[in-house]
Design a protein that fits this description.
The complex is a heterodimer of chains A (119) and B (115). Chain A has 119 residues and is mostly beta strands. Helices cover 0% and strands 50% of the residues of chain A. The model of chain B has no long low-confidence stretch (mean pLDDT 93). Classes of the chains: A mainly beta (119), B mainly beta (115).
């Protein structure tokens, strides 16, 4: 079973629209970490945010905001007033703390959401 | 401070050929990883190394071998390349951070095509 599900394969919006990218995760650990990465057309992975399971406070960084809800195992990402430069593939990822003998740092990725922002 | 570097950036192989993808990090991280990215599949872990001298299989290890040469370097070898190994390969390293857990740093990727 996939640990991280990004049900939206592709999303298209027009510039200045708000857009929310969904992420649902599955884990039995009580301590875990959630991430969002951006992959622009150039191909590199750009780190956006890291959140631990004990911190359910929502976070805002400029036009980006994240909504973490343990009750629904979701960690959704909203871009406000989208811009063409936001066009990219966005990945949600999970790492688990309880895997004895395994490095904490290994990430389980969702399949990604391709966001296209049209001018 | 170059972070995580990978060589080569692009490679074309014929079926059955072998090659080694190189990865190095200059951040003194203990843990290193190899992922592959295929269209619509996200990134999947091939192998990882929690510390110098140790390696472990990830989700998709078949057809690959790895070597943690020292703390800086972690190489991925394809002994007999197959078209199914056409992919983009990312190397990463990680470090414990203040809030607990680890933060990963990714290399720029190697685009491999096997014909």
């Amino acid at each position: 079973a996939q640990k991280v599900t990004q049900a939206q394969t592709e999303i298209s919006v027009v510039e200045k629209e708000d857009v929310t990218l969904d992420c649902v995760y599955e884990t039995r650990d009580t301590t875990y970490y959630l991430f969002w990465y951006k992959q622009p057309p150039s191909g590199e992975l750009v780190f956006l945010i890291r959140r631990n399971s004990f911190d359910e406070q929502n976070e805002i960084s400029g036009r980006y905001s994240w909504n973490f809800q343990k009750s629904t195992s979701s960690f959704n990402f909203t871009i406000t007033a989208s811009q063409v430069v936001d066009s990219a593939v966005y990945f949600c990822a999970l790492s688990e703390a309880g895997n004895r003998g395994s490095t904490l740092g290994r990430l389980y990725f969702g399949r990604g959401t391709q966001l296209t922002v049209w001018p | 401070n170059a972070g995580v570097t990978q060589t080569p950036k692009f490679q074309v192989l014929k079926t059955g050929q072998s090659m080694t993808l190189q990865c190095a990090q200059d951040m003194n991280h203990n843990s290193m990883y190899w992922y592959r990215q295929d269209p619509g599949m996200g990134l999947r872990l091939i192998y990882y190394s929690a510390s110098e001298g140790t390696t472990d299989k990830g989700e998709v290890p078949n057809g690959y071998n790895v070597s943690r040469l020292n703390k800086r370097e972690f190489s991925l070898r394809l002994e007999s390349a197959a078209p199914s190994q056409t992919s983009v390969y990312f190397c990463a390293s990680s470090v414990l951070v203040g809030q607990g857990g680890e933060e990963q740093y990714f290399g720029p990727g190697t685009r491999l095509t096997v014909t």
